[in-house]
Each structure stands twice: as C-alpha cells, then as structure tokens.
Design goal:
By secondary structure, the chain is α+β, with helices and mostly antiparallel strands. The longest helix is centred in the middle third of the chain and has 19 residues.
Length: 173
C-alpha cells in the first residue's frame, strides 16, 4: 500500500511553488507507536519527523513533476536540510510550502517550510524547514531497467491533484 502524507493541494503555481495540507488525526496508527505509554509516562502520540519529511517530499515532488507535465519519474535523491522546532500532534494541521529553486534535465532542488496550524487557537507556528533534491531517474540511471509507466506519480497522486482543483494536461500520468 502506498501512503499519501498530504490531504489536499491548496496552491500550485507551475514551476514556482506548491502548498499542501495534512490534518493530523489520532485515527492514524503510526502516531500511537511513536511515543507509547511507559511505566512512568503517559502516551505522547506524535507524528514522526520522517513522515513530515515524506509529506514535504510528496508536496515538492508534485511541484517538480508538474513542471514537466509528469513525463519523468521523479524520486527523492537527497535531504539537504531538515530542521524541526516543534512536535506535530493530533488535532493540528500541517501546511507544507515547497518552492522550486532549480530544475534541469538531471533533477531539481526545492526549499520548504512546514507550519503547524492550531485550529482551536487560530494560530500558525513554524514547525520546520526542509530542503530537498530530486532526480529524474530515467535520465540519471541509464542502463537500468525501469517500468515504462510512471510508477512515481500514481493514480492516487493524480486524483489528489484533480480533487484539489489542479488542471492537468491531457498527457499527464
């Protein structure tokens, strides 16, 4: 099963910026295992930072893929920087903002911020900063065999874009 760590795209400006949100819910089993209850402490359900990075990678990856109409297979090549200031806990919303710094035939580089939105207080705080690099694997791994279909941008991601109101070219994935 492929997990999607973003719930909705709220802005996509081609070749510039993508903004997505993720609602953090106690219904997600992975939160319960991060800091389970111990003999002297209550459970502290927290979204793991690795999954926050994955959410940013999905947001930024969609931005990179969209820049070339999803004709290329885009994979995360490097986490250049990941800095976290706050924990992400249930009941909050994450807002991922990815900015495209560079794109060429080899791949792309993005910078991003993650904000923590508290709907009860109506406040927004910086949760972290995540900078990523992506590779266009069909161009960079010549000689290796990859499926012809775009296994990176699955129907789930394309559906997410369409449900978010993002217009796609006819040839998109």
């Amino acid at each position: 099963m492929r997990w999607i760590w973003i719930d909705r795209i709220i802005e996509l400006t081609a070749r510039r910026r993508c903004v997505a949100i993720k609602n953090i819910s106690l219904a997600e089993d992975v939160l319960h295992d991060h800091f389970p209850a111990g003999p002297h402490q209550p459970a502290q359900p927290v979204m793991p930072n690795t999954l926050i990075i994955e959410g940013m990678a999905q947001t930024a990856g969609l931005l990179v893929g969209h820049a070339r109409q999803f004709r290329e297979k885009v994979i995360l090549a490097k986490i250049s920087r990941a800095r976290f200031l706050l924990p992400a806990v249930p009941g909050y919303t994450l807002r991922y903002t990815a900015v495209l710094d560079r794109i060429d035939d080899a791949g792309a580089a993005t910078t991003g911020t993650v904000e923590l939105i508290d709907p009860a207080r109506g406040s927004t705080d910086l949760l972290g900063e995540i900078d990523l690099m992506f590779s266009h694997i069909d161009r960079n791994r010549k000689g290796l065999s990859f499926p012809d279909h775009n296994f990176v941008f699955t129907d789930q991601f394309i559906s997410l874009l369409r449900q978010s109101g993002i217009a796609l070219d006819q040839g998109a994935a």
